[in-house]
Design goal:
Layout: H1 6-13, H2 17-25, H3 39-49, H4 68-80, H5 94-116, H6 123-160, H7 168-187
């Protein structure tokens, strides 16, 4: 036997033996003189003569693996709520994932309800208010030396004795230097929110 038998060729191309026999009868296979199938030549001829719409579809794709981050999130959700979480690397069961999903839905409903009741505030609005308040506080401190420098200079001069005179401009400049240094150091402080 020079080539393949019908059974061998069927296994080679992934068809049933009946499908190979139909292709043979339709002249879509190349045969050797002994009646065996020339696999390479038959593959080419079948590709040229087969209607693509009548070919078998590849099997349905296998399920994609779940990313580790998603599995970790399921575990975190279950642990936060006192439920049994999957062992690291052991995979998550359908029941655990479904339980985590239900817990998350309940948490989401709870947050929506708290927001409706006015117990929660919008983060962007809160950040905007904090920024505005901080800006107003900074502006008040920046203008403070000009308002109090003359008063402080006269009070200090009075405490030093008669005839002593302190310049308000010098006092104001010293105060502004120290206030700006303090504001610069405060500007470096960052909140934990990102």
């Amino acid at each position: 036997m020079q080539g393949m038998s019908e059974r061998q060729y069927a296994a080679h191309v992934g068809l049933s033996r009946g499908g190979v026999q139909k292709a043979k009868e339709a002249g879509r296979l190349v045969l050797f003189a002994d009646g065996s199938i020339n696999a390479a030549a038959s593959d080419v001829r079948r590709a040229e003569t087969t209607d693509p719409s009548k070919t078998r579809k590849p099997p349905a794709p296998k399920l994609k693996p779940v990313p580790e981050a998603a599995v970790a999130a399921v575990g975190d959700t279950l642990r936060e709520n006192g439920l049994t979480a999957p062992v690291a690397g052991g995979g998550t069961t359908y029941l655990q994932a479904k339980t985590a999903n239900e817990v998350l839905k309940a948490q989401e409903r709870k947050l929506k309800l708290a927001k409706l009741k006015g117990e929660l505030i919008d983060r962007n609005r809160a950040e905007m208010l904090m920024f505005r308040l901080a800006r107003e506080e900074r502006d008040a401190w920046v203008t403070w030396p000009a308002r109090v420098a003359a008063l402080m200079a006269s009070e200090l001069a009075a405490g030093l004795g008669p005839g002593t005179r302190l310049e308000a401009a010098v006092m104001q400049k010293a105060l502004e230097t120290h206030v700006r240094a303090q504001l610069d150091s405060l500007a470096e402080v960052r909140t934990g929110a990102g």
